[in-house]
Amino acid sequence: MQPTTAPADELRALADGSAVVDLSAFRKVRVRGEDSRRWLHDLVTTDVASLEPGSARRSLLLDATGHIRADLQVACDRDGFWLFQDPDQPDHVGAALAPYVLSSDVRLDDMSSEMGLMALPGSSDGTDGFRPSWLGPGRDVLFTASGSLDPPGGRTLVGAAAVEVLRIRQGRARMGAEFDRTSIPAEAGLEATIDTTKGCFLGQESVARVRMLGHPPRVLRHLRAAGVVDPGSSVCLDEGRVVGVVTSAATHPTGGTVILASIRWDARIASLRSEDGSALVPVGSSD
After folding, report:
1. Cis check: omega of the bond before 132, within 30 degrees of 0
2. Please, which residues bridge with residue 34 across strands?
3. Contact by Cβ (8 Å): 120, 157
4. How far apart (Å, rounded) are the C-alpha atoms in residues 256 and 5?
5. Dihedral sign from CA coordinates of 97, 101, 106, 109
6. Is 36 helix (H, G, I), strand (E, B) or coil?
7. What residues contact residue 178 under an 8 Å CB cut-off, 6+ apart?
8. Contact yes or no for 259/246 (Cβ under 8 A)
9. I want to staple 30 with a disulfide (CB 3.0 to 4.6 A). Which of 109, 125, 227, 271 is the partner?
10. 193-210: burial string, b at 16+ Cβ within 10 Å, e else
11. Residue 235 half-sphere exposure, CB side, CA atoms within 13 Å?
């Protein structure tokens, strides 16, 4: 399997903020009710309590043992919240949250088929939508699925391959590639999705135990090689001992390959090489 690449015009559009991405296949769950803010804040890892209309945050839903059930975007509007989730994830976030409603004044509605969603990565114009985008800087905009995606003028519609290249170049972990239902947040570099100051969330005790008393067995590194590095290939120490695996790889804009790699904890700060002996350096250190 080769590193992911995409058409040059689509990558340019993503780089200069003139792209539009159709995320209509995403799951879109509406959360409303008098208790919705407090209820959601007490379940997911991010700080929901301080979200203001028009803002969004990446979050996780963990199980009781601190393993990742869902990776999602929590977006706030004046009537409640939206949960956006990649449909490739095995657990539907709405179904996963439903058992916790109980007697709370909370309503969960799956609006996936009724609403479309488009991302405008890098966009600073316009007032509608939620910032930041699921794809990073920019905004996500809902529209009725009965209509059609109508990109703002001058924007280029980009496909899944370009979005994947963007993700890898950004160093953002994806469920199914960098982590799964057996993973904890620290293994996937997702500590930023966790508000460590709030009182509780599902899996909080397990997360705190890892943070205070131990460390994850593996960590995610964002690296670059001068040559071609394939996903699934081994990551080695200078002497050749295998200490990790490449989970995702994409072409680098100035040549070579940018990768995400799962590395053993004891090798997290070591000098690393690809299978063919090419040096792997942290992204940013040689750009």
Report:
1. yes
2. none
3. no
4. 11
5. positive
6. helix
7. 188, 189, 220, 247, 248, 260, 262
8. yes
9. 109
10. bbbeebeebbbbebbeeb
11. 30
Which residues share a beta bridge with 20? Answer: 157
Amino acid at 214: G
pLDDT of residue 154: 79
User: Cα(110)–Cα(97) distance, rounded to whole angstroms?
Assistant: 12
Name residue 160's amino acid.
A
Amino acid at 104: S
pTM > 0.90: yes or no: yes
Strand partners, 81: 31, 76
Q: What are phi and psi of 159, to 5 degrees?
A: -100, -175
Give me the sheet containing 138-144, strands edge to edge: 138-144, 115-121, 19-22, 156-158
**Beta strand 107-110 with 115-121: parallel, antiparallel or unpaired?**
unpaired
**CA 185 to CA 207: how far, in whole Å?**
8
Residue with tokens 């996500």: 140
Intra-chain end-to-end CA distance of the chain, in Å = 25
What CA–CA distance (Å, rounded) separates 233 from 159? 26
Q: Are strands 242-251 and 156-158 parallel, antiparallel or unpaired?
A: unpaired
Q: Read off the amino acid at residue 25.
A: A
Q: At what angle do helices 8-16 and 160-170 cross, to 10 degrees?
A: 50
Q: Strands 80-85 and 68-77, how do they pair?
A: antiparallel
Return the bridge partners of 29, or none.
83, 110
Whether the link from the prior residue into 216 is cis, omega within 30° of 0, is no
The Cα–Cα gap between 152 and 137 comes to 17
Q: Which amino acid would we find at residue 73?
A: Q
Of residues 58, 57, 53, 50, the one with CA closest to residue 77: 53
